[in-house]
Amino acid sequence: MLHKENQMNIKVVLQSEIKHPYSAVAYGIFESEKHPEREMEFLGDEAVGLVSRLREDKIFSGKPRELFSSLIGRGTMAKGIVLLGLGNEDKFAMTQLREIAAGSLSEFRRLKAKKAAVFLPSFLSKKLSFDEAAQTVTEALLLASYRFDQYRLKSDASDSSSKNLPEEIDLIVSKAGEKSRSEKGFSAGEVIASSINFARNLGNEPANIMTPTRLTEEAKKMARETGLKCAVLDEKEIRKLKMGGIIGVAQGSTEPPYVVILEHAARNPKKTLCLVGKGITFDTGGISIKPAKDMEKMKYDMMGAAAVIAVMRAVAKLKLPFHVIGITPICENLPGENPQRPGDVVIAHNKKSVEVINTDAEGRLILMDALSYSEKFKADAIIDLATLTGAVAATFGDKCIGLMTNNEKLRDRIIEAGKKSGERCWELPLWDDYLDSIKSEIADLKNVGSGYAGTIVAGKFLEQFVPKGKPWAHLDIAGVAWADSSKPFNPKGPTGAGIRLIIQLLRDWK
Ligand code: BES
Ligand code: ZN
Ligand code: ZN
Questions:
Q1: Fewest beta carbons less than 10 Å away: which of 94, 98, 128, 404?
Q2: Which atom of ligand 1 is least distant from the CA of 482?
Q3: Residue pLDDT, tens place only, 199-211
């Protein structure tokens, strides 16, 4: 069974209905706020006195990420208080709140608060409604609490999932009218965060466990649980459909390849969207083998597929009014008994021939088949997510997703969703000049170019397999799919990149 999360119980509570005192309550304070203590009257005189003193003496100014926590009197509604600096109110939106709210969890842990609360009205701004604030705080808390420690002895896990984690966190609202909106935001946040944590689990599992067969099983199981339609193409069917790219990549491994197709139907769908995700459960490079250093990280070369599977889970649970199809080609890139050789020619599903110059450029070889296969769904737009090139990490580091597209409208939507979800995207051009370097002497294309502009050339390659005339976007997530150091809402490891982005894109699609 896949790693089970340590669930904190989060719920929305009306201020007037609070019965028990909390171990700690978190408040947000903007730099511009004159009297934040007024909101805290229900916590008692001691909290009010402390906060007004902190303000007057300029000990706490409300700068972004500023933190102050302290224990207060035992007789009040809270034994501890956590103050979070929110910075400039005009700039305060979901992205800022997500990071700051994640910080409250570490303070709750430090105070060993079993029963914690977040005072929601203190986080509102012009750019942030009740439902958005509730969604974002929920996301932040659940993402920040994520740990993957199922392979460690419990006694050794110093930063383990359960250590000092609050058992309950209440999201406090002060007016009855705010409750149902906040509850809506809370449930969306819960679905989004649990989907991201699900993808993180898939990525954290080592490649000897998360084999192509296992990843396929996990997708099937998720589909059963959420009511999604799920079809699996096995090796025989992949051959019948003449997906030569997938067959070629998978042939060096004893693990068979699969293509998983998840489908979410809606009664009056606004649009039909195809999502395609790269699912290489381990990328050794094949015969064009990778150096040993950092190769262990190539277990996360399936995070594009994990993101697509997780988005499908969220789309189903949120009942989004779209027809969405998730297509994930899944296999392993190993130099086994009968591996693909450099120089081999394979024929893609759309009949184009490709000379495989470098067996390590395998992502594009499995995606070319999946992209051309997507034609059958007659989608209004196709988006692929893939840990495709090291070059995108060289260009952007872990600061954004590399976006390449053939459609301006789709680009604008994605960029906007990126800003809102905090998963920034930056566009790279797909000028036709970039095609020159992937023309082969003996086939229609070759799978690598000169070595320059690696991210763009990979995108240009994929474009050749997009069904004719279809709006398409390629998201290279190789720089952001894995965190090399801990972040407030992301421990070291797979991030679940792209999931919030695509859900935001769909929810904002007019
Ligand atoms: N999975 C890798 C890309 C990658 C590299 C992701 C580093 C995350 C971190 C991909 O299959 C690959 O090996 N790409 C090659 C392409 C090259 C051979 C043209 C690369 O980026 O070096
Ligand atoms: Zn590779
Ligand atoms: Zn790869």
A1: 128
A2: 8
A3: 999 999 999 999 9
